[in-house]
Structure formats: structure tokens, C-alpha cells
């Protein structure tokens, strides 16, 4: 009888639903849709999922999910991000390269956006009260990991919907082998031509 009771308890643990935060910054509709699909799959598996969407770009209008709970927050940086991403579009779609100053400007903006989120005590209190078991974020920027730490979320998962950027791969401890993996710099690497 004791063995059956232990087996039932073990099975209940396996079937437990987790509270999951999906950090989905409003950079682009494609990324929001990717994160929304992840959330939808987790919900269909029985988990309680909240998508937190700090708005960064005015053009990123979708939530990506019709079934996930949403927390959408305007953190006051959309105009600044729109100006910066004009240069980013040139880099991605016209083959121009990103200068060191452009890269540093982007990094500065991500820090400012992160700071704007952390200063929103009302939002941080809402998220902390959820007592998430797990958080999920893409490799677009590093704010999410500081946010997860700030919210005392014990575990996190990193997703990459596209090629892993060199600086991200290095930061996560798995740099690409330069001898056979081209850099992801949109057109200036001779291995891509």
C-alpha cells in the first residue's frame, strides 16, 4: 500500500502545472508571435503562463497569443527605439554594417529600457506576486536575466528563434567555431558570400 501511495504522489508531481513567465519585449511582431506560440504550447500542456510584453517598438502590435494571460506595459521608450531601428533596418536589409558606435548606442538603449522596467515598482510587484517557477526569454538582450533575478524566479530557459549572435554565444559560454561557422553580421562576412 505504501508503494502505491508513493507512486501516486510521484505521478502527481509529474503532472504539476508550473507558473511560467514568458518575457516578450515588443521589438517585432515575428518575435512576439514566436514567444506567443511557445506560451500557447505550454498552456495546452496545462501550465499557467503569463506573457510580459514591455513595449519597445510602436510597430510591434501583436501579442502573439490569443490564450495566454498578458501584461503589456508602455515603458516610454518607443520613439527612441524607432529612431535607432532605422539604422538597424539599413543594416539588415541593405547590407550596410553596424559601426561600433551603433552597437554601443543599441546597448545603451537596452540598458535604458531595462532600467525603465525595473523602476516600475507597480509592475515589478505584480510580477513578483505571481511567484513564477520558471521564466523564458529570447537571446535578444540581457535585461530579462536581471529581471528574473530581481523577481526571484529560480529557473530560466533561453530561446533563440534565429541564428545565435556572436556576442550572445560568447556570453552564454558556447562560442561558435570561427573556422566553419560564419558570423551573423548581415552581409559583411566573406563566408556568407
From TrEMBL:
Leader sequence residues: 1-17
Statement: the UniProt record of this protein carries the keyword Ligase: no
Xref: InterPro entries: UDP-glycosyltransferase, UDP_glucos_trans
Reactions the enzyme catalyzes: glucuronate acceptor + UDP-alpha-D-glucuronate = acceptor beta-D-glucuronoside + UDP + H(+)
MF GO annotations: glucuronosyltransferase activity
Domain of life: Eukaryota
Swiss-Prot/TrEMBL keywords: Glycosyltransferase, Signal, Transferase
Leading EC class: transferase
EC number: 2.4.1.17
SUPFAM superfamilies membership: UDP-Glycosyltransferase/glycogen phosphorylase
The keyword Oxidoreductase appears for this protein: no
One Pfam entry name: UDPGT
UniProt similarity note: Belongs to the UDP-glycosyltransferase family.
Protein name, UniProt field: glucuronosyltransferase
Organism: Plectus sambesii
Organism phylogeny: Eukaryota, Metazoa, Ecdysozoa, Nematoda, Chromadorea
